[in-house]
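for ur thesis appendix - ComEC/Rec2 family competence protein. copy paste whatever u need, i formatted it the way the template wanted (i think)
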Amino acid sequence: MKKRQLSPARRQPERRTSGADLLALLVVGLTVALAACNITAPSDPTPEPAGTLTVRFLDVGQGDAILIRSPEGKTLLVDGGRSTTRMAEHMQKYSIDKIDLMVATHADADHIAGLVEAAKAKPTYFINNGLAGTTQTWDRLVTALKDAGSTFQKANNQVFNLGSARVSIIAPPAGMGGDQNENSVGVRVDFGKFHALMTGDAEKPETTAWLSQNRPEIEGPIQVYKSIHHGAANGDHQAWLTRVRPQNVVISVGSNTYGHPTQTALDLYAANGVNIYRTDELGTVTFTGKADGTYKVNTER
Ligand SMILES: [Zn+2]
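the 3d part is after this line
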């Protein structure tokens, strides 16, 4: 896996080690070793990061847009909904003036149209599934991102540091053909013991392939989970939820003619004891998580 720093770490100057330095190192090493013998109470080697991670499912009507902020104010936007006007309102309301990482899970309009507006926040990195869209909306997005100076990357299981949170990109498995939904990019965010997972509109063939790959990124429990494909019947299924073990599911949905969310999906979540939040009923849904795994939920309505 490749790991990238959104803010690159400063490189230490190279230094040669002399004989005198080696002697000094030996003395220091011996002192540390002796001191270690006296330690009785084990200390936690990696203290949990402070602050909270915010995962906000923006109410964009029928579509997806998830805004994630690290305690340090680093920003990840996963999809942007279908409306530039709606996205402009959210950008103002939540002060989105810089995006560090933007992910388009796939190139359908209900996921990328709002990203054209969000490109004004000059994303440092833009990640997509590698399948170019065939619409004017897609062309507009590419132009906006080029103007913003964004670095384009195809989803390749990259890992990013978003401040003290970690973002894992889950690349579509090979052999999914040319369908946009079945080539959805997955995103997992880990902040200590607080975990979020979203996989766009991935349909059963894609999630089944991820299951057979035994990917660590899909292992639950997951506190914050996005319903696949707005609660369509071809999205979430039992074998997948058994692995993911979501505690809360957010269905990002608006008025639509597809029958989203389906009773099949709602029954599946209920049978698995998952708390259900719908953006069409509750507006924007926000989770605020701490590194110890505890969290709070707020809804707009
Ligand atoms: Zn969709």
